[in-house]
Every structure is written in C-alpha cells, then in structure tokens.
Design brief:
Blueprint lengths: L3 E7 L5 H10 L5 E4 L2 E7 L2 H8 L5 E10 L3 H9 L15 E6 L6 H20 L13 E7 L2 E7 L21 H9 L9 E3 L6 H10 L20 H14 L8 E5 L2 H13 L6 E5 L13 E4 L10 H16 L5 E6 L4 H5 L5 E7 L2 E8 L6
Parallel strand pairs: 5-6, 8-9, 8-11, 9-10, 11-12
Antiparallel strand pairs: 1-3, 1-4, 2-3, 4-7, 6-7, 12-14, 13-14
Helix pairs in contact: 2-7, 3-4, 5-6
The structure holds S-adenosylmethionine.
S-adenosylmethionine (SAM) binds next to α6.
Length: 378
C-alpha cells in the first residue's frame, strides 16, 4: 500500500471548498483546490476511502500524467511515456473518453484515438505482447482532458458517479443530486441531536443525506466502485475501508429528522428510498403542505429545495409559499433556515435578508443558497 497516487476529487462548481474540507477530514494533507476539482496525494488505500466517504464529490479520478500538448505527436509521445502498466493490467479494458476546451488539439475523437494508440503501444511493449491486447479484464475508463493546451490523463476510480448511492429507487420531477443535498447539509452547523426538517422533501434526498451524516454512515456503503477490480489496489485496502466504515457508523445516534411534502406519492417514494438507504424508520415522513408546518421544538434546522416557480403559471403559487414560510419562521427565531432556489426575489418574499448567500448550480440552474442563522436558546 506504499504506492503513492495523486487523486482528483471532482466537484460541481461552488462545492470545491466543501469537497476539500471532506478530503482533509479523511486525514489527507497536501490538498490543492482548483476550479471544479480537489487534488491530493496519498497512498493507494485513499482510493477505497475517498470513494466510500466523500459525500459531495462527483467522482474520484486517478491522475496518470499532466503535460503540455499542442501537436498530436506531443500527445502521443508524452502519453506513451507515462507508466500505464502500473495501473492497467495486460487484459484490462480501457476505453478512452475526452474533452477539449480552449486548446489547439480540439478534435476530441482524434485525441481519444491517439491516446488509445499510445497506451496500447506502451502496454504491448511492457507486457511483451506481439499481437493485440485482449481487453477482457478489469475496466479502466481513461480520460484525456485538454484545457488551454494542458493535457490531463486520468483513470476514473468510481464507476457510476458518486451521487449514485444506491438508495434512490424512486424520484419526483426535480430531484436534487445526492452530492448537492449532502453539501446543503454540510454547510449548516446542524448537530444530529437538533431537529431537522425539509418541508418540500420530494423523494427525500436532503433528509436522507442528513440522516447518513447524522449517523456518520459512509455514503458509498451500499454500492460498488470500478476500482474494486483493480489488481494494484490490494484487496486488504478495500476490506479495511469497508471495515472502517462499519466501525465509524454511529447507529445509536438518535435523530430528529422530518421530511414533508404536499404530494402523498412522493412521501411513499421518500419512505422507500430511506428504507433502501438502510435507515428504516429513522426519518419521519409526513404528507403536509408547507403552510401547515409548525416547529414544535427550539433550535431546529430547516433545509430545503422548494419549487423555483420557473414553469409557466407556477410562479404566483411558489411566491405565496415563500411568503408563508417567512411568516411561519418569523415566530421561531431559534431556527436556522436554509433555502436553495433560483428565484431572485426570495428574500423579499420571505420577508428577511439572508445572513449569508452562496451561489450554487443545481444541474444547469443558477441558484442561491439563502442562509438564515437562528439565535439559539441555550
Ligand atoms: C424541487 S422539489 C424537491 C425535490 C427534493 N429535494 C428531492 O430531492 O426529491 C419541490 C417539492 O415541493 C413540493 N411542494 C410543492 N408545493 C408544496 C407545498 N405547498 N407544500 C409542501 N410541498 C410542496 C413538490 O411536491 C416537490 O416535491
């Protein structure tokens, strides 16, 4: 496990600092934050650990090499010079995907086939194969990403994106990505002993992510990763990472989390998703319209992704909901309120300026995360 690797945890725009904090909490130092990614160096056991634990990263990629490339010759020779045999086995299957932004080498299909040829040549030489590589073994998705003539060659260690926790068996019309939902919870100061409510819970993503965070359950516990089949990562590293996840989970932590929604079908879906996540009935689900929400305890957290009112005819109704929410929460100053919406008039409708705002993308939709810090009653 001594082999050092450089890993890239990719992050949605605006989430880089949160991903970086998570990487550091896993014990990794030497962490660099860049646009859309967090780069860190660690021994190979970081591949299982990062995949299992990172709640807000999209994927974990293994950096094979980085260099300037302005001609196809450059790209071929410098790709061939990288130690691919350290990662890809003789029978490994390695499709190459690509992207190119603001670079002289702009034809992505050409870059992909050149990278493929260069790796094939390298591996054939290293493994002493005269004919062709069989590609019947483990799967390695290689990516060539060119940005301003800098080529970044990576192998994806995750497989499906890390947002696929394996619990979402059903969803509503506008489900939040699990990674973003986790980030919404992470930026609050919520402690699992305190009440937590999402009154527009839809398929339950925010409440489920809060429960996983509350009991310190590794988000990747229920799924598989592409790199589980890679021979350069000792099986022991995977076994230890899963064992660590089991030991760190605090199933005794009581939770006070409620998800409610106006749509009863979504409540059924949220319940099923929570079951799939292994949460049993730890989260309380309730069919209710937001207007009927009444906080019954102090020092709670409301974290929500309400409708944005972007569809025709929906706006007046949505604005009414924001007003209703503002009126309800005005009487509960010990509650902290966090709302993600693209509606720029949110603060006006809610009736109060946010303590803090953070720009985030929900998919392609530009949103603000409005944060109102409660005055806690001790
Ligand atoms: C953007 S979706 C939330 C999606 C959710 N975060 C998820 O991951 O599935 C907004 C939700 O608000 C619910 N909703 C709409 N009007 C409501 C109201 N007046 N009271 C409560 N919920 C309402 C919708 O049924 C929908 O599920």
């Amino acid at each position: 496990m001594d082999q050092q690797v450089t890993l890239i945890a990719t992050a949605a725009m605006g989430l880089e600092a949160i991903v970086s904090k998570e990487v550091k909490e896993l014990g990794y130092e030497n962490v660099q934050v860049e646009n859309g990614r967090v780069v860190f160096t660690a021994d190979v056991s970081a591949i299982p650990r990062a995949n299992l634990w990172l709640r807000t990263a999209d994927r974990v990629k293994l950096l094979v090499g980085k260099f300037k490339a302005v001609t196809f010759d450059d790209l071929f020779e410098k790709t061939k010079a990288l130690p691919w045999e350290n990662f890809i086995t003789e029978d490994g299957e390695f499709p190459v995907v690509g992207k190119s932004v603001k670079s002289k080498l702009y034809s992505v299909p050409d870059c992909q086939s050149i990278v493929k040829k260069a790796i094939v040549e390298r591996l054939k030489k290293k493994y002493g194969v005269a004919s062709w590589l069989k590609e019947t073994g483990a799967f390695y998705r290689v990516e060539i990403a060119l940005h301003k003539d800098e080529a970044l060659l990576t192998i994806d260690t995750s497989g499906s994106g890390l947002h696929k926790r394996g619990y979402r068996v059903g969803q509503g019309e506008a489900p939040l990505k699990e990674t973003l939902a986790a980030a919404l919870v992470q930026v609050t100061n919520w402690h699992p002993d305190e009440p937590f409510v999402d009154p527009f819970c839809g398929s339950g993503t925010i409440a489920i992510e809060a429960a996983l965070i509350g009991q310190n359950i590794a988000p990747g516990f229920n799924r598989e990763f592409a790199s589980e089949d890679w021979s350069f990562i000792p099986q022991k590293a995977w076994d230890e990472a899963f064992q660590e996840a089991e030991e760190c989970a605090n199933y005794d932590q009581p939770l006070n989390i409620t998800g409610s929604d106006i749509d009863p079908d979504l409540i059924d879906i949220a319940k099923n998703n929570a079951m799939e996540a292994g949460l049993g009935d730890l989260v309380t689900w309730k069919q209710m319209q937001v207007r009927d929400f009444k906080p019954k305890q102090e020092n709670g957290y409301l974290v929500s992704n309400p409708p944005y009112g972007e569809r025709m005819g929906e706006r007046p109704e949505v604005e009414e909901m924001y007003r209703d929410l503002g009126v309800i929460m005005r009487d509960h100053p010990s509650w902290s309120v966090y709302v993600l919406t693209s509606h720029e008039g949110f603060e006006k409708l809610y009736g109060k300026e946010a303590t803090k705002k953070r720009k985030l993308f929900n998919g392609f939709i530009k949103t603000d995360y409005y944060q109102y810090f409660g005055k806690k009653i001790r």
